[in-house]
Every structure is written in C-alpha cells, then in structure tokens.
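Anyone? Bumping this.
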Amino acid sequence: MRRILVGIKRVIDYNVRVRVRPDGGGVITDGVKMSINPFDEIALEEALRIKERGETDEVVAVSCGPDDAQQQLRTALAMGADRAILVRSDPSVEPPVVARVMHKLVEREGPMLVIFGKQAIDDDCNQVGQMLAALWDRPQATSASKIELKGQTARVTREVDAGLETIDVDLPAVFTADLRLNEPRYVKLPDIMKAKKKPLEVIDMAAIGVEATQRLRTLQYEPPPQRQKGIIVKDAAELIAALRQKGLV
Amino acid sequence: MNRILIIAEHADGKLNAAVAKCVSCAASVPDAEITIAVLARAGTAVAQAAAAVAGVARVLLVDHPANEPALAAVLAPQVARLAEGYSHVFGPSSTFGKDLMPRVAALLDVAQVSDVMSVESARRFRRPVYAGNAIVTVEAAADRPIVATVRVASWQAAGAGGSAPVEPVGLDIPLPTHTRFVSVTAARSDRPDLQTAARVVSGGRALGSAENFALIQRLADRIGAAIGASRAAVDAGYAPNELQVGQTGKIIAPELYIAIGISGAIQHLTGIKDARTIVAINKDAEAPIFEIADYGLVGDLFTLIPELEKNL
C-alpha cells in the first residue's frame, strides 16, 4: 500500500503569549492551550490532498512525545488521517532522537513520503526532517511551498532566501512544509466523532529500540531583553527631524 | 584548542555576507582556530573572498561539478567528511544552513544547536525559542563535535584584511543523484538586500493591495532601503515570500526599521527585535508594534507616506 507518514508535534498554541517561569526552569504550561504545531497541520493537509487526488492510499499521523500528544493525534485523525502512532517519550526529547524514532517507523511502515512541518514553534529547531533524510539516506525538500508527484519522482518548490527554488527528487523522500504550501481544513464535529473510532497505537520508545540520549542540556530559560518603549511623534516632519538627528536618513 | 569549521554559503561566485558573521561567532569561542570550507563547482573566487576575512586561519576548497547549485543531500556527506578532527562545525541560519546543517549533524550522530545568538563557553550557547519569547542556555556534551547554525542577525561581520592560505581538497566519496536542481526564481533588484541592509522599510496588510505596496517601494528607494513585508502582506499577495520578516521569514538587524501598516504580531516582532531603531506607523494607536518602537506615528499611512517623502 502507498503510504505517507506525517509528523505531528504537540506544542503551546500559536496564539498563547509564552512566558518564562520565575525559576528559569522552563516556560509556563499550566492551563495553557496546546495544539498541533501549525506547520505540521500544513504537512498533514498536504498528505490528505495527495490522498484525495488518488496518489497515495493511506495517511498515518505519527508523534513522538508525552501521553497527552494523543489529543493532537486525535485532531489529526479528525482532519482525515487514517490512523495514528504515538511513540511515548519525555516531552523534552531532542530532534536527533525523534529522527531515530521516525527512522524506525519508516522501516516498519515503508512510506513513499514522510512530511513534517519545517519547524516546531516551541523550540524553533528546524531539524527533524533533515535528520531523518540523512539517517534514511533519502532526498529532502525542506520549506516546501508546492509539491507535485510524478510517479517515482516529485517536483518540489522551496522557499529560500533568494526566492523560490525548484528541485526534483526520487521517492521515497522527506519533505518539510512551509507556510504557503496550503491552508489546512477546519475539523467538523462529525469528523471528531468518527476520529474516536480510528486506530491510535501507543508504543514506548524502548520497545522500538531507540534510546533517549540527551546531548544538549538546557541549563536555563530567561525572558528576552525588552526594548524600551519609545515616543510618539506628532507628525511626519517631527519623525524625519528625529531620524535626521540620529543620522539615520 | 577549538578547531572550528565554517561552511561557506555562496552563489554566482560571491561569498554570502553571512559567512563573515559566522566568523565573528566562531572567534568568540575561546582559543578558536577558524577554517572556512568552500564547496563549489569552480570556487577559486569565493575561496579567495573567504581567505580575506579577518581571523580565518585557512580555507579548504572542494571543487566538484555537483556542488553548485548547492543541494543539502549532496553537500552533507562531504561536510561530514571534512568535519573529521574539528570540535565545531558552523553554518549560517539562512535557508542554506537550515537545510544543510541538521543533515550534517545526523551524519555525525550529534545534536545541533540552532540559531546561536551568543557564545558563553566552548560548549555553552544561548539561543532563542518560542519565537524569541524565551532565551535558553544550552550545553553540548563534551565527547562529540558541535554542529550549530549561527543566528546572523546577532553578529557583526568580521572585518577584511585576512590572508589565509587556500588549500584545494579532493574528497573521494560517492555523491547521491537522487536530488536534482531544476531552477531558482529570484527577483533581481537594484535595491539593497533585505538581510544585510542598513535601512529597511516594511509594509503590512494595511497597504490593502499589491498596487498600494508600491508606496513602500517608493519610500524605500528614496532612503536607499531594502523592502520587507509582514506575513499578512505576503499571504495577501502584496509582496513576494522572500520579503517576509519574522519568526518563519527573515530575522534582520538593520540600523533603521520602518514598519508601516504592520500591527506587530509576536512572530513579526521576533524578526526585528535586533534593529537599532524601530519606527512604527499605524492608524491604531493600540497596535502592539508601538510597544517596541523607538518612534511611533499614529495616522493613516496613505496620508503619512507622502508627507514623509515631502520632508526628506
């Protein structure tokens, strides 16, 4: 069966203003809304559209994270994923470990494609997709804004600093989704009901043979330095005069 | 001694300005010896430019027909081979470095430190998380090399005046053919580059149309500024994607940043926090952009932009 794996990460919701805990040991998560990482939602939407075009047979949502990530996987199932897999781990699991977990799942599931969000909006690392592609020794197309499948290859347009880059890759491959790849669908209530019956498998990391190494120790969280609030000028003339005085125009 | 290998970004025979910023970052590692690796097709000019950056001990030049245009899958195994014997491997946190460096880290079986904003010790770094709403200090394990991307907006470019030797290197390793470059569409512009410009004028959704966005271009040209845009303006089609400033776009640190019709979502602010002077022009006096602006001007941009031009 042709299959796409989609990486789903549970993160603090996009709209929450994140605050550092007073003890510097992390950020405040009590009572904070958690969601699917927005870029992962875009990745899932793309996989669902590929399936709707008849270019794949099954979409599997996979996550590596705490038990609570089942909530996000249920949302992924409600969006349209056929089944889900949670590999249970510590919430602070490092990208290389997640990549090794995904590699194990790739060996088990034999997908034609693995799609991730280009970065998670919590740690902003932007690493897992590229790391999986290296371990799997397959092509990567990061920051994708357009994906066209053509049999055994795909043509992907990537958002790069210079503009838009197009590459061809052989399948299977790893893609990471950028903002403008698509607009994810909204979940409808009947789909949430249906999702409760879809299969969600929970596995311990040790059971698939991945050791949770930690090679980067986070010593401290601190709030960013704050900029001083400036002044409100009354008109354009005053603004230009101020900028001139500082030698900026 | 810390032996640091920097992977050079380049295009069209020119060294990217981010490389000299990576050198500054590397130079702040105690007891550092800095090597720049240029992987190119015919990279002599790029290698010479790299050799002229102050503080560089030597430049390794790997010429290979497959090395340009740069593809992460092709470069990564070569970089992993070059990395033998180095304590650190740095690349810029541009789309080039973000694509390449994690692939290198995985080949070396190490973690990556993304977006280094300061160096606390040879193994301890600070980096932003949560769109810059928190800064973490991380420490890498002592038994392995460190792969990192350098948050270029946090670093001044190292100066010129270096004269490092250039050493050609032949790497006899198989390169993958599963990834093939097709094309790149880059807007050719005489304007300054967004990531290195001293002045940037950015427009937001309030511009209302792609035609009106020309007002931003006119003002930018008037003061020799690069053009930026908020995510909302790019999503609405007023400006191309490569002009997006913010968490998922470009992180910039100009001397002067003028935000026009941009309300100031956290994701946008994280891209401009390092600007020396921020000017905000918005008709909503409560817009969050005014919280971080050095100079705020409340009013209608369609009236104010012509007035600004008149006063210049």
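Late reply, but here is one note on the structure posted above: The mean pLDDT of chain A is 96.
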